[in-house]
Amino acid sequence: MATNSGSVGAYINSCASTSAAPFPVHRPTRHLVEEDRQDNKVVDTRRAGRLSPQPYYPRPREECPNLVRLIRIPDSIPPLLCMKCMFDEPGASPILFQEEAETPRLVTMSGILTLRHCQIASIVFNSPSQQTSVQESAIVDPMVLPFSPSAVTSEHHPGGPPYTMPHLPKLTELSITIDRGVSPRSLLQFLEFTPALQTLSICASDRPVYPEDCRDMPTVDLPCLQSVMLEGLLANAVDEILSKLALNTSTKIDIHLGPFSPSWSSSTLRSALSRIQDARISYTAQEVEGSGEAASRSKYLFKFSDVDSRVQVHWEWDIPHVDTPNLLHVRLDLAPLANVQMLTILLEDVTPLSHQWIAMLKPFPLLRRLDLSVTRADAQTALARGQSTASFKFKVRATPLLQKVMDISHVFGLGLPGYIDPGKLTTTGATSTIPGSSLRRKLYSGAWRYMVHKSG
């Protein structure tokens, strides 16, 4: 839809003043809103002297809890728009709509998309956490995106004309921040209408939601997609979304799994993972900020990526201080990582035991080289927050056939703990993790001495 850069607001007003307007327009009569240029928030002109963290509305919240603003992207020719959405009740309609300095009006999402679908280049959707009577641990429905086809179609009256979802040919960026998991079905439905999308970013809280099955949905082809970032979604939602996206080999994928769903099989990334020959792992104990219950827990982050950080998967969890950390939360799909021959591991303030080393290295049966960096708080300079770092390099001197006979994860699992900390033996429980007779366990100990060349 072509319009001149100086007539954007006039175009909407002209549509609103005719009977052929694409959506009903109601001008608020109580008071107007204006933009606070300092912090870019919409504020109530009657209450500008006492701002709240939440934006004010020109109507009571219970009447109009959702706000959409269209802002012109600077220096865009022809003029392109960023659609900023603040939704307190995603299922509620109508929506308070404002474009630049125009007077706010009540509209529907279908009306906004119909009118501006050819100019919207960016969508920033935010639905903050609400104070409800539902417990944090209670399972809730995932959020249906209000601009998805199923949502906008439901806005129309049964007796009215059928609604056709428009394509958004200029949309390149979609950013979603919500207080629960997103509905994979509604997201995939919407992505079918965004052929030029380059960046997809979803940040959700890790509260549990009911799963959705997307097996009956078609694969979405996004040839321009450059990066996908999924944070806080449950593992099944990540799998459903990625399994239906036809990703390019150059698309960067960044996944952050929360504590409610730490374990994940990366089956949907097999094609991307199978090309990796040089991988990286970092395992870190992080500082916990806060007091009370938060201060009594320890926080850990485990990250896997290829050497170019094209594929990144993060596992994050916390446990009580008195508990020993483990890697039961981490699971990498074994089959596609069999081609990894070089691995770099960074440890910070953690000391894996033998069975944890075995779990960490199990996905890499043909490993030929391991570079290890261990960073720990230096006891002598603890008051000054000093740290010491030690580096080790290991090369496997064995044929691929021998590596198939000797499980390389068990070889390193038995040898690494004692080699890193020769002053204190940390191999307790190591032999119990290796099946078979004591002779078999001795065989693996001998393999560590003769198959692995060590330096550092």
Walk me through the structure.
The protein is an alpha/beta fold and 456 residues long. It is 18% helix and 27% strand. It is built from ten helices and 20 strands. The protein has helices at residues 8-16, 109-116, 149-153, 184-191, 235-243, 270-273, 354-361, 400-405, 408-420, 438-451, and strands at 33-36, 41-44, 66-72, 81-87, 95-99, 105-107, 120-127, 173-178, 199-204, 220-221, 227-231, 245-246, 252-257, 278-286, 297-306, 311-320, 342-348, 369-377, 387-396, 452-455. It has a 16-stranded mixed sheet with strand order 6-5-3-4-7-8-9-11-13-16-15-14-17-18-19-20. A hairpin with an 8-residue loop joins strand 3 and strand 4 (81-87). Helix 9 (408-420) packs across helix 10. The longest helix has 14 residues, at 438-451. The radius of gyration is 27 Å and the shape is elongated. Residues 1-61, 379-385 and 425-432 have low confidence and may be disordered.
Throw out a few tags for this protein.
alpha/beta, 16-stranded mixed β-sheet, two-stranded antiparallel ribbon, 10 helices, 18% helix, 27% strand, disordered N terminus
Number of strands: 20
Evaluate the radius of gyration: 27 Å
Q: How are helices and strands ordered from N to C? A: HEEEEEEHEHEHEEEHEEHEEEEHEEHHHE
Strand order of the largest sheet: 6-5-3-4-7-8-9-11-13-16-15-14-17-18-19-20
Helix content: 10-25%
Low-confidence stretches: 1-61, 379-385, 425-432
Q: Proportion of β residues? A: 25-35%
What is the 3D form?
Answer: elongated
Largest sheet: 16 strands, mixed
Number of helices: 10
Class computed from helices, strands and strand pairing:
alpha/beta
Mean of residue pLDDT values: 77
Q: How far is the N terminus from the C terminus?
A: 65 Å
